[in-house]
Amino acid sequence: MGYLLYSLTFLALLTGTALYLTRARWLPSFQDRVHSIRFPGSDYLYSRLAPGGSFEDDMEAGLSSANFDLTGNVEGGDGRAGLDDAAKREVLRIMKKRRLKFDEARRVYMEQRFKENGIGADGRPRDPKFVSFS
Fold first, then answer.
1. Is 59 helix (H, G, I), strand (E, B) or coil?
2. 132: Cβ–Cβ under 8 A, 6 or more apart, which residues?
3. What is the pLDDT of residues 81-127, one digit of tens each?
4. What's the Rg (C-alpha) of the chain?
5. 11-34 burial, b if ≥16 CB within 10 A, otherwise e?
């Protein structure tokens, strides 16, 4: 009985060490699977955005940076509705899922949009019939 306990303890210690040392390989795919599980009410955790909010609400949600500055809109009293709601949700999802800052998440979002619309990373269309005279 004692050997069984020692064997199980050794096996658990060996498995834990192997998982810890190889976590860079398996952890990202595991996190993607865990984050893809939808729990009731999980849409409202940490990033509750009012539809049709203002630029001030967007700044408070973390959707502003030195490269994408919204302070001019807020200080100028811009009365528009703020940023696009669907894009805000997607950028915030990318920020949480990949743990990126706003500028990087915005870049990833735009690359995804380019890919969906058949535009390459260099900004040129990927249409085989495309002809450019420059």
1. helix
2. 124
3. 667 778 888 888 888 888 888 889 888 998 888 888 888 877 788 88
4. 23
5. eeeeeeeeeeeeeeeeeeeeeeee
| Whether the predicted model's global pTM rises above the 0.70 cut | no
Amino acid at the residue 49: L
| Residues 82 and 55: beta-carbon distance below 8 Å | yes
Sign of CA dihedral 64, 90, 97, 108: negative
67: left (phi over 0), alpha (psi -120 to 50) or beta: alpha
Place of tokens 């539809």: 51
Residue 88 token pair: 């805000």
Burial group, residue 124, by CB count within 10 angstroms (0-12, 13-18, 19+): exposed
